[in-house]
Automatic annotation (TrEMBL):
Reaction catalyzed: D-glyceraldehyde 3-phosphate = dihydroxyacetone phosphate; L-erythrulose 1-phosphate = D-erythrulose 4-phosphate
Pathways per UniProt: Carbohydrate degradation; glycolysis; D-glyceraldehyde 3-phosphate from glycerone phosphate: step 1/1; Carbohydrate biosynthesis; gluconeogenesis; Carbohydrate metabolism; erythritol degradation
InterPro entries: Aldolase_TIM, TIM_sf, TrioseP_Isoase_bac/euk, Triosephosphate_isomerase, Triosephosphate_isomerase_AS
HAMAP family reported for this sequence: TIM_B
Organism for this UniProt entry: Roseovarius azorensis
Domain of life from the UniProt record: Bacteria
Function of the molecule: Involved in the gluconeogenesis. Catalyzes stereospecifically the conversion of dihydroxyacetone phosphate (DHAP) to D-glyceraldehyde-3-phosphate (G3P).
GO CC terms in record: cytosol
Protein name: Triosephosphate isomerase
Gene Ontology MF, one: triose-phosphate isomerase activity
Alphabetically ordered keywords of this record: Cytoplasm, Gluconeogenesis, Glycolysis, Isomerase
Similarity comment: family membership: Belongs to the triosephosphate isomerase family.
First and last residue of the signal peptide: none
Length: 247
């Protein structure tokens, strides 16, 4: 039975003072029946990993460079993240695709680098509002999925997060039918590429304005195996009810 996953993306938020939120989470979940991941900024990964070592919380990163080392000022490699205590890394978040012009080919390179360092890659896909309104959602998802997921990906090292760009940080969420349509589509595409058995084992997360009030309804949608949560992951009092909705 595949374990479901709630992942929190702190984005460019958090300082040492935020560790109290993480300590609260770690105390609340000494063990859990779901996987729980917090992705703080890179500056906090090592400390966060230490603080959560005896709990069910795992620590991830928000990005990595595709190369293991080299002349890439300001970048951080997957081996460095693993060395700091991360077990996973988000790649292809729409904010990176937009703000840093990241292509799906680059995202696939980052995912491969993550895998080579023993990290789970959380690969994000999602359409813009204009693309949805032009009825291009499934075409965009198909293209991003095909080009962002390496051929060598497995259900053990890769998680797919469907994050419609227009739902991120806006308070807007797609209808259950819209989420189901995309998640069913992703599952079917994975089946065509990796075989139906493996496709069934990949975890598919929904992300975009998940909060304590809508989490249970989102988790009840078929083919939703958890969530990638931004704003509502910053405070333990918001994130815990989302975890509990999945437990
Ligand atoms: C995200 O940034 O991945 C995200 C889903 O953000 P939010 O939950 O704030 O919409």
């Amino acid at each position: 039975m595949k374990r479901r996953l709630v992942a929190g993306n702190w984005k460019m938020n958090g300082t040492n003072a935020s560790m109290t939120e993480l300590q609260q989470l770690a105390a609340a979940y000494p063990s859990a029946s779901t996987d729980i991941l917090i992705c703080p900024p890179a500056t906090l990964i090592a400390r966060a990993a230490d603080l959560t070592a005896d709990s069910a919380i795992r620590i991830g990163a928000q990005d990595c460079h595709p190369a293991p080392s080299g002349a890439h000022t300001g970048d951080i490699s997957a081996p460095m993240l693993a060395d700091a205590g991360a077990t996973a890394v988000i790649v292809g978040h729409s904010e990176r695709r937009e703000n840093h012009d990241e292509s799906s080919a680059l995202v696939a390179g980052k995912a491969s680098a993550a895998h080579a360092s023993g990290l789970t890659a959380l690969i994000c896909l999602g359409e813009s509002l204009a693309e949805r309104e032009a009825a291009r959602t499934l075409d965009i998802i198909a293209d991003q999925l095909a080009a962002s997921v390496p051929d060598t990906a497995t259900d053990a090292d890769t998680v797919i997060a469907y994050e419609p760009i227009w739902a991120i940080g806006t308070g807007l969420t797609p209808s259950p039918a819209q989420i189901a349509e995309v998640h069913d589509f992703i599952r079917a595409r994975l089946g065509g590429r990796f075989g139906p058995d493996a496709a069934g084992s990949f975890r598919l997360l929904y992300g975009g304005s998940v909060n304590p009030s809508n989490a249970a309804a989102i988790f009840a949608i078929p083919n939703v195996d958890g969530a990638l949560v931004g704003g509502a992951s910053l405070k333990a009092s918001d994130f815990s009810p989302i975890i509990n909705a999945l437990e």
